Amino acid sequence: MVKKWTCGVCGGEVIEGQRFTFLGSLGAVHVECLTARLAGSLRIDERDLLALLDANEALLYAIVRLKEADKIAGSEEVKVALSEVRASIEKSAGKISSLLQKLQDRQ
């Protein structure tokens, strides 16, 4: 079953596998919506925004790919290893989301 949320910026549907992140104040947010919302703000260093969005995208892509790898893995040993790696990346993605939240709060 595919998970779905509502984008905290545009109100549109966010579907698991799309490019999105979670921000505490907005919930699920499309990456494109977040970029549009924050880009051009005089209170935000755009280099920081681009760096965080790029890192966020890489981590979210890795999470999606690891979920797909888990679905095709045959042995429990491999499934556990993939799950552990995914959990580690999800923790890192949380740190990046926290920094994006700070930028959002400055807006």
What is the compact description of this entry?
By secondary structure, the protein is of the alpha+beta class. The protein is built from 3 helices and 4 strands, in the order E-E-E-E-H-H-H. Helices cover 62% and strands 13% of the residues.
Low-confidence stretches: none
User: How many strands, what sense, and barrel or not for the largest sheet?
Assistant: 2 strands, antiparallel
**Shape designation:** elongated
The span between the termini is: 36 Å
The helix fraction, in percent, is 55-70%
Structural class: alpha+beta
- Tally of extended strands? 4
Order of helices and strands: EEEEHHH
Put simply, the count of helices is: 3
Round the Cα radius of gyration to an integer and report it. Answer: 15 Å
Task: Kindly describe this structure.
The protein is of the alpha+beta class and 107 residues long. The chain has one domain (4-106). 62% of the residues lie in helices and 13% in strands. The chain is built from three helices and four strands. It has helices at 31-38, 46-72, 76-106, and strands at 4-6, 13-15, 20-23, 27-30. Strands 1-2 form a two-stranded antiparallel ribbon. A hairpin with a 3-residue loop joins β3 and β4. The longest helix is centred in the last third of the chain and has 31 residues, at 76-106. It is elongated.
